[in-house]
TrEMBL record:
Keywords per UniProt: Hydrolase
PANTHER family according to UniProt: DIACYLGLYCEROL ACYLTRANSFERASE_MYCOLYLTRANSFERASE AG85A, ENTEROCHELIN ESTERASE-RELATED
InterPro entries: AB_hydrolase_fold, Esterase-like, Mycobacterial_A85_antigen
GO terms assigned for molecular function: hydrolase activity
Gene3D superfamilies found in the cross-reference section: alpha/beta hydrolase
Record's protein name: Alpha/beta hydrolase family protein
Domain of life: Bacteria
Highest classification ranks of the organism: Bacteria, Pseudomonadati, Bacteroidota, Flavobacteriia, Flavobacteriales
Pfam families (UniProt xref): Esterase
């Protein structure tokens, strides 16, 4: 039986409306100036969150990406300079990643660790307070397969550390231009780095034999060697610019993961240690994260 043109157009409109409601095409929203009260740090911890289109209307739970900033940044830089909300909208619409929540905490300048004296226990706060709180306040899937941790520079170090040290928490880990620094790296001579080493790790870099106990305890390249072969199930995606001064530590991470036969991707693209490069990395790592979220 022949269908009228108006009937066909009406049916198409209903189909598009249905698909839009199912796949939540459109723009997500960014909420800034969010915070939780930390008893461990005795202060408010600020964060910014991206909620995918359709979040308010649905009752479903979503995968989550914890997105860590670099040194000197804050909870807003991935939106302001990375434009992460626009990239998420595009990746979701193109079915490269399912609708997901992105949470961007203010990591200060703590390198996402507990300092050697126990004065600033950022890592404890993150796992004991921050993640449980946001996963209670938002409809977030609470399985490792549906959690990813991503970061750039200092945040890349934090993401790699968490992906190794807390590998039971994250199904995917994405270190970008990660600050994986050996003690013979030229950067350790920099006055700023000497201050970081002393305040966070208890190392006097001007000493002949600096104390490295706390450094080693937070060195993902050392920690990864303590995990029995076959037990590290986290998927890793490294990306670094060919002109980045942190290339050597990232290359060592690649070798370790290769030797351990851990699932990973390692990318070297044209670029340096800046937002131009990190923005160019976003489509690739979102697709990689999406493959992990959707393969269940």
């Amino acid at each position: 039986m022949r269908r009228s043109k108006s009937f066909i157009l009406h049916t198409a409109a209903i189909t598009i409306t249905f698909l839009s409601s199912v796949f939540c095409f459109g723009q997500g929203k960014v909420l800034e100036a969010q915070s939780i009260k930390s008893a461990i740090l005795d202060k408010e911890i600020d964060y910014t969150i991206y909620l995918p289109a359709g979040y308010d209307e649905s009752k479903r739970s979503y995968p989550v990406i914890y997105l860590l900033h670099g040194y000197g940044g804050d909870e807003n830089v991935w939106v302001q300079y990375g434009l992460i909300d626009h990239f998420m909208d595009s990746a979701i619409e193109n079915a490269e990643i399912p609708p997901s929540i992105v949470i961007m905490p203010d990591g200060g300048q703590h390198f996402y660790i507990n300092d050697f004296q126990g004065y600033s226990k950022f890592e404890d706060m993150f796992f004991q307070e921050f993640i449980p709180m946001v996963e209670k306040n938002y409809r977030i899937k609470k399985t490792m397969e549906h959690r990813a941790v991503v970061g750039n520079s200092m945040g890349g170090y934090g993401a790699f550390l968490y992906g190794v040290k807390h590998h039971d928490m994250f199904g995917t880990c994405v270190p970008l231009s990660a600050a994986i620094i050996s003690l013979d790296h030229p950067m350790t001579k920099n006055p700023m780095w000497k201050g970081i080493a002393k305040n966070l790790y208890g190392m006097d870099m001007d000493s002949q034999n600096p104390s490295t106990g706390h450094w080693d305890a937070n060195n993902p390249l050392k920690l990864i060697q303590t995990i029995p072969k076959g037990q590290l199930k986290t998927r890793f995606y490294f990306d670094i610019g060919d002109d980045d001064f942190l290339y050597s530590g990232n290359a060592k991470a690649y070798v370790e993961l290769r030797n351990m036969e851990v699932e990973h991707e390692f990318r070297i693209h044209d670029g340096g240690h800046d937002w131009t490069f990190w923005r160019s990395s976003i489509p690739g790592f979102l697709k990689f994260i999406g493959q992990g979220f959707m393969r269940q």
